[in-house]
């Protein structure tokens, strides 16, 4: 299971349905630019370690490249290519004037000290300084990268440029050019589109059961938002444990436990279950909020949820998509469900380049005004073309990318 093969299959499926211009399809079948670097870091114990780093600039038909940087031991070039491609689609889905890019470093950041992490983050910027910039390519957080890391990166870039260049990365801390609402934006966007879908089916939020895989920024905030809105969150998973209680979990207590112990393991009053069981639970909503390739042809048939809300990028393989479509599971795809993050990143960038900062209410209002109409347009497209929401999202996005490519010639 290669994420980039999956991404290309998704592209081809939607391209066929809209009769996508051949030249546009050819261009979208490989990235515009791939940059690789080795980052030598002096570790705290005096030894030298070299980390492999990437930036993939996939497509810039609609604007500067945009997309996060992932620090994870399983990063590889094909994964970064897939993630960069999905960013181009995602920006087009929500209509923000950006292209798609992604970066990564092969590293287990949990094994680094704070000083080592800072060195690595600054080294990344020095290695890629020629290709990034507020008008060129704007990175952001992704798996295991944080606002603090973005602050180091913006600081390093500003030093190299000899002037403040806050718009070079988004997802920064509030004290240094960050936007209100950026931290919760990915979950918030997913929450809005799920609520729309729930309404479409004439269901009531109250007591709908939820399982969430992943308890990082997106998963934990989604758990909180859903719990507060009346959904019943019955299962949560992080990289160390999966906890389940059919009566519902006390999210405030779970978050306090995670903060104190850095893990969900050992939380009292729950059953610890396997990953297989997590995906088979009798829940209404399943939220993959971790990594790629989690829902596959092996487990897709066992999914009982009515909705799958992809806060993770690429959690579902093309085979699994087909099985779930047949089984009438509504998959709200990554390129729509988690697009709130890049949307507020775009707002952050607008605030940086205009040096004019918005209130939390303004950010939230603008986010809603992007997410809900995008959802409606895609829902309608899916109904019209009798297809799934992922294919419909790709159809909308590819059409926008094709139009930009066409006028540019
Ligand atoms: N890493 C996030 C994503 O996959 C956010 C990207 C951004 O804000 O540029 O959508």
Q: What does this molecule look like?
A:
The protein is an alpha/beta fold and 409 residues long. The chain has two domains: 32-176, 3-Layer(aba) Sandwich (Rossmann fold); 185-337, NAD(P)-binding Rossmann-like Domain (Rossmann fold, 3-Layer(aba) Sandwich), CATH 3.40.50.720. It has 14 helices and 13 strands. The chain has helices spanning 3-18, 22-28, 77-93, 114-128, 147-161, 182-200, 217-229, 251-261, 275-280, 318-326, 334-337, 339-354, 360-385, 389-408; strands spanning 33-42, 48-59, 65-66, 69-72, 100-106, 137-138, 209-213, 232-237, 242-244, 271-272, 285-288, 307-309, 330-332. The chain has a seven-stranded mixed β-sheet with strand order 10-9-8-7-11-12-13, with helices on both faces. Helix 6 (182-200) packs across helix 7 and helix 6 (182-200) crosses helix 12 (339-354). It is globular and about 55 Å long. Bound molecules: glutamic acid.
Characteristic terms for this protein:
409 residues, alpha/beta, Rossmann fold, seven-stranded mixed beta sheet, four-stranded mixed beta sheet, 13 strands, 47% helix, globular, binds glutamic acid
How would you summarize this macromolecular structure in one to three sentences?
The chain is of the alpha/beta class and 409 residues long. It has helices spanning 3-18, 22-28, 77-93, 114-128, 147-161, 182-200, 217-229, 251-261, 275-280, 318-326, 334-337, 339-354, 360-385, 389-408, and strands at 33-42, 48-59, 65-66, 69-72, 100-106, 137-138, 209-213, 232-237, 242-244, 271-272, 285-288, 307-309, 330-332.
């Amino acid at each position: 299971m290669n994420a980039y093969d999956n991404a290309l299959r998704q592209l081809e499926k939607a391209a066929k349905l809209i009769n996508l211009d051949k030249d546009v399809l050819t261009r979208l079948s490989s990235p515009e630019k791939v940059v690789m670097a080795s980052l030598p870091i002096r570790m705290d114990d005096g030894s030298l370690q070299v980390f492999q780093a990437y930036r993939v600039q996939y497509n810039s038909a609609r604007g500067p490249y945009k997309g996060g940087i992932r620090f994870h031991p399983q990063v590889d070039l094909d994964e970064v290519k897939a993630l960069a491609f999905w960013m181009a689609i995602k920006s087009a889905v929500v209509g923000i004037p950006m292209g798609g890019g992604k970066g990564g470093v092969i590293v287990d950041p949990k094994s680094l000290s704070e000083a080592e992490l800072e060195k690595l983050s600054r080294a990344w910027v020095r290695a890629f300084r020629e290709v990034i910039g507020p008008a060129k390519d704007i990175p952001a957080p992704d798996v295991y990268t944080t606002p603090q890391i973005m602050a180091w990166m913006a600081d390093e870039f500003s030093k190299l440029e000899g002037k403040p260049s806050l718009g070079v990365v988004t997802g920064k801390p509030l004290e240094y050019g960050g936007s209100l609402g950026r931290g919760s934006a990915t979950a918030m966007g997913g929450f809005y589109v799920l609520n729309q879908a729930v309404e479409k089916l004439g269901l009531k939020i109250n007591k709908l059961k939820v399982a969430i895989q992943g308890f990082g920024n997106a998963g934990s905030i989604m758990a909180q938002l859903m719990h507060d809105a009346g959904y019943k969150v019955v299962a949560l998973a992080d990289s160390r444990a999966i906890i389940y209680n059919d009566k519902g979990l006390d999210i405030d207590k779970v978050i306090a436990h995670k903060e104190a112990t850095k893990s969900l393991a050992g939380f009292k009053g729950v059953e610890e279950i396997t990953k297989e069981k997590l995906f088979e639970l009798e829940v209404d909503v399943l939220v993959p909020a971790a990594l790629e390739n989690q829902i596959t042809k092996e487990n897709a048939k066992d999914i009982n949820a009515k909705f799958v809300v992809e806060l993770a990028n690429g959690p579902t393989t093309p085979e699994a998509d087909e099985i779930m479509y047949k089984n009438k599971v509504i998959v709200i795809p990554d390129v729509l469900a988690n697009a709130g993050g890049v949307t507020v990143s775009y707002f952050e960038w607008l605030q940086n380049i205009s040096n004019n900062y918005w209130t939390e209410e303004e950010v939230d209002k603008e986010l809603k005004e992007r997410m809900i109409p995008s959802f409606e347009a895609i829902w309608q497209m899916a109904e019209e073309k009798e297809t799934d929401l992922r294919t419909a999202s790709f159809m909308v996005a590819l059409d926008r990318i094709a139009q930009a490519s066409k006028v540019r010639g």
